[in-house]
Structures are given as C-alpha cells and as structure tokens.
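[Automated response] Your request has been received and processed.

Submitted sequence:
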Amino acid sequence: MKKPAKDTSRIARSAGTVSIAVTCSRVLGLIREQVFAYLFGAGYAYDAFVVAFRIPNLLRDLFGEGALSAAFVTVFSDYEVNRSERDTLRLAGNVMVFFVIILSVFTLLGIWQAENIVRLLVQAKFELTPGKVELTRLMTVIMFPFLIMVSLSSVCMGILNTRGHFFIPSVSSAFFNMGSIIGGVSLALVLPRYGHPAIIGMAIGTLIGGMLQLVGQFPSLKRVGFRFIPNLDLADPGLRRIVRLMVPAVAGLAALQINVFINSFFASSLQEGSLSWLNYAFRLFMLPVGVFGVAISIAAHPIMARQAATGSMTDLKESYVSTLMIAFCLTVPAAAGLIILAEPIIRLIFQYGRFDAFSTVMTSQALVYYAIGLASYAAVKVTVPVFYNINNTRSPVVGSFLAVLINLLVILLLIDHLQHRALALSISCAMTANFMFLFVVLYRKLSGLPLKYLAAGFLKVLLAALVMGGWLLALDGLFGLRAAGTNIIFDMLKLALCIISGVVVYGVVLYKLNLPELQLVVERLKER
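Generated structure:
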C-alpha cells in the first residue's frame, strides 16, 4: 500500500463534517459539566447523579448507540444496495416498533428494581451517607425512559448516515445537551422552592434532552425520503439478522460495561468526590474521542459496509488502514496535549462555584491517566465495525472480556497506591489490550494488512507529537501554566496560544514528514 485508499478523501470529508457536529455537541457537553461543577461541585449530589445516570446510560450503550446502531447500519446498508426501497423502509419501521416494545419492558423493570440496582453499584461507604442511596434511586427512576428515546435516535442516525447525511445526526446530541442545560438548570432553580433537591432538575433535564435528540432528526429524515411504516414482523429476515448481530455485540459491550460497574464499585469505596473527579475527567477525555475517533468511525462505517456488501475486500482493507491512520494522526497529539495541559484545562473549564482547587488537581490527575489510552480507545471505535462488516461478531466479544480482566487486574494491583488514578489507568490499559487483540485477529481474518505502511505512518505521528510535546513543555516553563492565575482572560489567552501553536507545530512537522493521509487532506483543502 503506497498511498491512501481511494475512499480516504471521502471518509475524511465526511469525518470532517461529523467532527464539526460532534465538536458542537461536546462543547455543549462541557458547558453542561461546567453547570454541574458550578452548582454541585464534586461530592454528595453529583456523586449520586453519576451513579443514577450511569445505569440508563450503560443500557443505552448496550442497546442503543452501541450494538443496535452498528448492527442496524450493517443490515440497512445491505438493504440499500440489494433490496427495494419499500423493503428498506419496512425494515426500519419493524426495527423501531420491535425495540420500543423490548426497551419499554427493560425500562419498567429498571424502575421497579432501581434501588437494588443502585445498591449493586456502590459499596457500603456510599450507603452510609444519609439519603444518598434514596436520592440516587429517585434520579434513576426519572432517567430510565431516556433509554427508549436515545435508542430510537440511534436508528434515525443510522438511516441518515447510510444515506450520506452526517451533520444533523451527529449534532443531535447537541440538542440533548441544550435540553439538559436549559431544562435542567431552570428546574434546578425552581424545585428547591418546593422542597426538592436541585439535582433532581438536572435528572428531568436529561429526559428533555433525550426527547430533543430524537425529534431533532425528524426533519432530516423527511428530506431523505424516509417514511415510517409501522409494522411488527418477528419473522422478518432483516430484523432477525440485526438481532443475531446484536447478541454477541451486546455481550461484548456488556463486558465493557462490567468495567464501568467495577470502577464505580471501587470508586465508591474511596474518598468522597472520587466518582465526581473521574466523571469530570472522563467527560473531557471523551471530547477528542468523539470529535476524532467516533466521527471517523461514523464516517467510515457506511463506506466499509458497502464495500463488504459488494465483496470489495481489497478496498475494505485499504479503507480500514487509512481510517486507522487518520485516527492515530488526530488522537496521539490530542493525548499528548491533555497529558501536558491537564491541570490548566481543568482549572479553566471547571474551577468555579463549588468546584475548588483541590478538585482541579484530583480531576486533572485522572485526566492524565485516561489520556494514556486515548489513541487505543479511538482505534477500537474504528476497528469494531469492520468485524460487523465481515460478519464476525465473536472476536469483539472476546476482546471485550479480555479488557475486563486487564481492567480488574490493574485496579487490584494499583488502587492502594494510585487511588482514583488507578481507575483511570485501568481503562487505558484495558482499551489498549482490546485494540491489540482485535488488530491481530483482523490481520488474520483479512489475510494480512500493510503493517510496514502502518508502522511508518505511526512513527511519523509519534515523532511529530513528541516535537509538539517539547514545544508545549517549553511554553509551560515560560508561562507557568500550572500555577493558578488571577486573571481568567489572561489564563485563557495563554492556554489558547499553547494549544493553537502546538497544533501548528504538530501539523507542520507531520506534513514535512510526508504522511500520505495528511497530504491528501491538505490537497483537497487547497482544491476547495
């Protein structure tokens, strides 16, 4: 492989569109977290919210934006290529009706067993705080219907992506954040007047946001010619294929969610605030994962699904390698930047109101350890859909359970020494092991991949990131970024200068090293 795949520019262009949309969403997500930090800090109320939201959120990952989305895009792309328009629309309607029924049952069961689920997630130290479990249970009950809304939203997103529309479905999570912020804050200010905790307003705001995320895609669905044909046919081969693809995918994602349970369980035994520090850090960590890793995966998946459906395996391999290289090109320097600039970034974003300097230090430490696994996390996002495209769903399951073992092992070995930082490091180690396993398996399944091309490209990315890191460290020494400033505008300007100049240094070095994917993107920009 001497040059990027012929579809690389198309993937890069679509990924750019998705990245813009995801950036809008992630920025609003950070504003949402700023609101939490300002109003509730790191402690009692926000710890309870983190646990309560984690329960419907992990089910969303299992049945909604994870397994359902990937399986639906694979089958829907096949129908788009090989079946009639009516068959394709009937499949979408059947999938929607079927999963609304299934997820409604899960929601009712979750509401019924909310307190038992909460107690399963936390250790005794969490339960000893008066009223904390009850508050968590109440918010869990309120937020459980979010699962249905976001799962339907993921089906809508799959339809639009398959038909070449990426911006609106990707920006739909921005609608969620807007609803959460506006609705949640409004209720958080009003509810205490009636004797209810302010944090309950943020839980209700989550439901408002979920509804906006779903409804916000309806106009785009109409424009691409989608019509909802309600039907329920359990014998439909398309529905059965989606379910068959989902079963091992759910098992694999369940393994990853076991890591969430494990980390929540151990975090609840640590100093109060540990759950909050880890969650704030993880939200910031997910910004580059979403903007780069998820965006590239979303853009590449329909293209590679079509290549698999038409039997173009050589094109599939080339598209995967180029997509993976683009992911490394973007996430390796992002990881280096987060590691070096973690504390000033956290201070600038969160240190207001009840979020104090101590919370800044603790959260930035967690962010550093999360950032170690950033490139691997994005690489897994890019790699897993390829297994769906070649009808191999067993390998991601095995990789996920391997990640569970690595996660637990790292925690048991290091938690006494690193405390909450061990829980962030364990996720990074688990995702790295998962990616390495998946890559080796995929190499064998596809009868080889251009390893020399990948290695040469990765070394160029690493070298450019090291140069950028040296530049950022020099600026840190010059400006003293880790020291708390007295002027927020001046601190913002210093951090912006570091980030922008770091990006320029990295881009120039990488371009001079002749990375093909970067050169192709630059050429397309010049043409425009």
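Summary generated for your ticket: Residues 8-527 form one domain. The chain has one domain: 8-527.
If you did not submit this request, please reply to this message.
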